[in-house]
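Hi L.,

You mentioned the student needs an example of a multi-chain input paired with its predicted structure. This one should do, with 1708 residues in total across all chains.
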Amino acid sequence: MIMSGEKYWGFIKDPIHGYIRITSSEKRIIDTRPVQRLRRIRQLGPGAEYVYPGANHTRFEHSLGCLYLGGVLAESLPVGLSRKEVREVRIAALLHDVGHGPFSHVFEPLLNRCTGKTHEDMTEWVIEKSELAEILTTEGYEVDRIKSMAVGRSKTKRIFLNQIIRSTVDVDKMDFLIRDSYHTGAEYGPIDIFRLIYTMDVLNSNLAVDLTALPTLEAFVIARIGAFRAVYFHRTVRAFQIMLEKALRIANEEMGFVDIHSKDDYLDLDDYSMWTLLRKCEKSRDIVRDLERRKLLKCSFEGCFFIKDSLTTSLLTNETIRQRLGEQIAERAGLDKEQVILDVPSVPSVPYYHSLSTEPMEIPVFYKRRDGQRIPMKLSEVSRIIEPLQAFMNIVRVYTDSMNREKVSKSAREVLSDLPISTEVSY
Amino acid sequence: MIMSGEKYWGFIKDPIHGYIRITSSEKRIIDTRPVQRLRRIRQLGPGAEYVYPGANHTRFEHSLGCLYLGGVLAESLPVGLSRKEVREVRIAALLHDVGHGPFSHVFEPLLNRCTGKTHEDMTEWVIEKSELAEILTTEGYEVDRIKSMAVGRSKTKRIFLNQIIRSTVDVDKMDFLIRDSYHTGAEYGPIDIFRLIYTMDVLNSNLAVDLTALPTLEAFVIARIGAFRAVYFHRTVRAFQIMLEKALRIANEEMGFVDIHSKDDYLDLDDYSMWTLLRKCEKSRDIVRDLERRKLLKCSFEGCFFIKDSLTTSLLTNETIRQRLGEQIAERAGLDKEQVILDVPSVPSVPYYHSLSTEPMEIPVFYKRRDGQRIPMKLSEVSRIIEPLQAFMNIVRVYTDSMNREKVSKSAREVLSDLPISTEVSY
Amino acid sequence: MIMSGEKYWGFIKDPIHGYIRITSSEKRIIDTRPVQRLRRIRQLGPGAEYVYPGANHTRFEHSLGCLYLGGVLAESLPVGLSRKEVREVRIAALLHDVGHGPFSHVFEPLLNRCTGKTHEDMTEWVIEKSELAEILTTEGYEVDRIKSMAVGRSKTKRIFLNQIIRSTVDVDKMDFLIRDSYHTGAEYGPIDIFRLIYTMDVLNSNLAVDLTALPTLEAFVIARIGAFRAVYFHRTVRAFQIMLEKALRIANEEMGFVDIHSKDDYLDLDDYSMWTLLRKCEKSRDIVRDLERRKLLKCSFEGCFFIKDSLTTSLLTNETIRQRLGEQIAERAGLDKEQVILDVPSVPSVPYYHSLSTEPMEIPVFYKRRDGQRIPMKLSEVSRIIEPLQAFMNIVRVYTDSMNREKVSKSAREVLSDLPISTEVSY
Amino acid sequence: MIMSGEKYWGFIKDPIHGYIRITSSEKRIIDTRPVQRLRRIRQLGPGAEYVYPGANHTRFEHSLGCLYLGGVLAESLPVGLSRKEVREVRIAALLHDVGHGPFSHVFEPLLNRCTGKTHEDMTEWVIEKSELAEILTTEGYEVDRIKSMAVGRSKTKRIFLNQIIRSTVDVDKMDFLIRDSYHTGAEYGPIDIFRLIYTMDVLNSNLAVDLTALPTLEAFVIARIGAFRAVYFHRTVRAFQIMLEKALRIANEEMGFVDIHSKDDYLDLDDYSMWTLLRKCEKSRDIVRDLERRKLLKCSFEGCFFIKDSLTTSLLTNETIRQRLGEQIAERAGLDKEQVILDVPSVPSVPYYHSLSTEPMEIPVFYKRRDGQRIPMKLSEVSRIIEPLQAFMNIVRVYTDSMNREKVSKSAREVLSDLPISTEVSY
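Structure written out for the whole complex:
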């Protein structure tokens, strides 16, 4: 936990990890505008607080948590990291979220559409263009290396350095799973993250988990899916986010706030300023008025399709087809197409959607023989629950306003009846 | 926990109290703009998050916690409350904070100066003038009774109903002490609030605590002072708040946002919109720029004066004298008077300052004889720690910017040397 | 939470559930020797404390927890229970474990063999024969009804009353899963038991869970399996228990303590007296000497067989065949048959083994239509993880002492190679 | 947290401190009979579990906690400890309790009377005479140094090494305050022990606390007194312990188990064997029968005397005078002298009684000047609550059986009326 040779500034008290010791260099990097701005960007959403009133924690405290866990993992890996690498991992973990826009993932579809960028691209851009670049250099960090490591794209041969910050069992996920559970009160956890950390090793340059921690690893995957169901893709949370995404889209048509020319413009955007803007903007004002009274869209249909049916999956993750299905449902219900939204986990505004759909199988595990040799194994061969767990995210929902609930429910059942959708739930 | 005869809407999950069951009536009241607005007013400050990054919880979740605890206490009091009274206590507890301005107590001095009102006055005003009045009536509540009970001023003979919401051991304090500790990570608690609740009774129409819970009551007082020292009057938290208070004051000179003519104007003010405004306003912009980089005022002097010396106390709590002392210190240090701030716990921007200075002695306790009779006692006679505990809040500090720290430190020691101030700490 | 009309004695403070309110009648039943004796019978094992030093909680506090949860569930079921039924459920839950012998499940195989009884039979016997019978009668309970309800065998038509205490989602399991996690520190939980409780209902006289709580129900099943792997069937815990079971068996040959003629003889047996006896008894003394220095058997082989292969399953759960396999392994390794133990989860000394093997599929769930009608569903049809989860308990292990570890490992691999055992792990 | 150069065996999971990493040497020392025996000696009492059913944790897990905290403190002290010293502190902390008899402090008065020894003397004796001596030597420890450091009597010039294990803010107290609160559920804590640890330093060879942690230090003292009132000297806990102490005394008259000739005899004594013995022994059998049904002595009188009145204090702490007062009360009530017990906190069976009466004032604190120099200060001068807190332990109680409660209550009031005793509480 202690980096010898570094000058420590002091401790920051975190409700999750207790006292986090930081160096004077780190303190100066924390006290920059791009990092401090994360105090005004909520970790969950927003929308989660409409189901869990306690869910008001921010990306700032999460980033400190990542710095801490990144350091613990970096120092405990049996492969041995240099002091320089430990320093880098801590700072890269701290900065991994500085590119997020207001409302995080809810802002992302708009960002993608207008600029072709993801929040990871923005993270690299912010680190390079803001006051961060100068201070990183002053404190002895290489800007290029830090910015790419922060998003898991560093060109190092020691690719596990990237994976500490961005992979299927990275410190980012470890921190947010525990932190989200703590502040929401949603009891899908806890995961024994220190058991994971203390049993991790590096195998062929990749992070891997010792098979003795298999139950903990499975619990980690289960907790992620639990968090997905209880929080990130919760029916009501999504209702809020769909409305907010629309408000952002139409307000941007009027105000053009995504035409970002300087990093200052971008750093001015945060949850506070954006909500204020959406409330004032004529086009989005009505949506905000509803959100401020918790008048939300209603879910009229919810179904679960089988993952093995890749056709269905691709249909539903294809934006064009998804929109067409939505339009068919609207038409059949005698409604305007804007009044019906078909929601699946693969839209960019669902946090972690891509990782959920692709990652769980890829966690490398190894078995340590009595002679010390480590044999790589496939998680899917040693665990029988990983595969069925994938089914959890194949959800399709249809939203509309409360007045049209019944009509849309009926219409959605008819339109979607051809798809292999099971456990249909109508409201 | 269950109010028979009421129609329940469902549960809200709270990280502190678990599942909070609410009725359909309560749901409709919660889903109004004045209550939902509390989601955008932080419970602590702000400023607390500059010391405890996790301190981002809001008055919304705290208000739900008060509804819950108010109900539990109302139902467990041996004196017996009618179903109507239990309903009223829950709603009054829910609404007790709706009058808070942005940044809560930091806004209060400005509010006082411009309008002569406290946030309690505003709570009554908001309940009466906003959509709350109509919905309360529809749901069968008496608006006048609820609005006055919410601020502890109801004209009932059963004055303990007011005291459940506002007194030295009210559910407001019970909830925020536990909630603040949970989200900050500051370990001054926990207090065994259910032991307090289950041993409370009514004596001559007043709430009182059974002497068997004396250790718990003392722990409650100790926790309040612990919270005061660790959070509410923390040196760095105050530095932030003093700067923000100034930003509000000078921005208001330019923008006049406290000239509130309608409750809509007032409800538009929240942490989000006010921060955005302060950032744009020319006068306050520089302060916000510093705050967004955590460049804070520094404490140059801290002393503790004896409470028994009432002259000193009154001197320091008198605004005029306090300002004059600040000016003397500035002058002697060769600085402008604006550059030196003398801070004491009795300024209105310190949450709960008035209650801390006056209340601890007044908690009524009783001793239950074997024959069942309850004998009222004075807390100060049965507890030997209540009185000395008062000393904790007699703190005086002098702030200035980091450049002038040494000069002001020296000057403050000289100017304040005539006062009976002990344990002087210079920086 | 409050049973109107009952006289309350007061509260008992529990680290899990907080203040548990109990009536004067309940207090008198708690203060009998059969209930107080549970203070000297540990909840877990023993053996769990050899892996988790904190695992020293007892069946006494667990029994109070069951009384509490039993009461909460009884009062919240929408079907409506009479006051008499709520009283009965609480007392039956309190008494459900009074028949346990010393070291609980480790004692059970010996009890079965010598007397043909299970601990449930003993519970009924103790309630009927001890001072409990008289005091139950005095306090207005029907002894016959309580004793059979305590083991889930009450002849009531309202069979959900039995199921509150003994079924796949009973308050017994809810309490011990949370309590075991708390005291061990093993992080397989927590489960949101109050969400389960508040969404439970009665369908055709059976307890059933609302489909909206499906994720919570799955988490409950996952937590049980997590507890099984991390605690109940942990490799080291089992090593301890196998040795203790042997010590009990051979000491009984010398001392005959299971020839129980009176309930007083039986109630004299607890963890304290039995350990003292085993330490003194010549035959078992050496085993105790090893246990008191943590010299444990070593696991030489561990494999996982497929559940669908019912032949293998039945082979391994058949005691005769299991012993024969063990003897073959011993013989091939050139050892005495006593020196090799083949361990599977289905032996009676593994807590909850029978429930794990048979129950998970049987949890009834229902879907509530908008018109209020409840449609029964099969859990296996709505959940895709229930079935694969079964695989977790198909473990077979071979133990021997540390000197013969290698030999037995080799021999076990050879003998068991014909069985469809996967993920073989040799040491 | 990591001792470079040591070979680590692995982790032990503790519910309080999480994963405790231990070396192979430490593992071998932990796996000796004197250390493993602590699994059968409860941390609290016994008696505490009669008020807090969850209070079943043992001195074994507490000892591991002390090893852990001792290591953390040893590694974080700015004065710098050698690797050898860190090793020693950890092992000495682990072994500090190995000399405790069955029922810990309840056994102590008998031990004192029969052998003239305290449990600290026995700790040194056990370390020297048992298998510990050999294994310590093998693993490279100096037996003499470890045994004396374990009881805070090492002859080192670096006396802070002793103080880490035994002083007013030692790791022993830090661990048990938190652990006792966790397992009992008594909410007098938590204390922010890591803030204490991280702000501790060495001043003139003594451990001292930085003044910036004054609130934490005060909270630590307050928590100790809270624990004293809520647990260690709880009225009912003492009733149990007084009865048990008597049972031990009279059973020893019959059986002579304190005539200990070998360390094996002594190590055979633990909570398990002693309870079994007391139950069988003819003289103590009746007391055990009552304890096993929770028939306890009743407190007939409780008063609080002023500490400043040193005459009263000395009277009550003088065993002869205390007994004489008890006899007077008995005589006046017409009872046998055995039927009345006068209980004060200064009897040896109250855990930590001596430390409570003498220590709080002596905690050294220092103030660090801006130039780095540390100025020693007296805690009583900087804290105003330390002194009044002393009043908490000046309690005198009179116990008798439930039948004679009224008589003894009256008689005690009369006999003790001459003493300056306040807040008299009669039952």
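You could point out the following to them. The longest strand of chain D covers residues 298-305. Chain D touches chain B at residues 187-192, 195, 211, 215, 219, 222, 226, 229-230, 367, 370, 381-382, 384-385, 387-389, 391, 423, 425-427 (CB under 8 Å).

Best wishes,
N.
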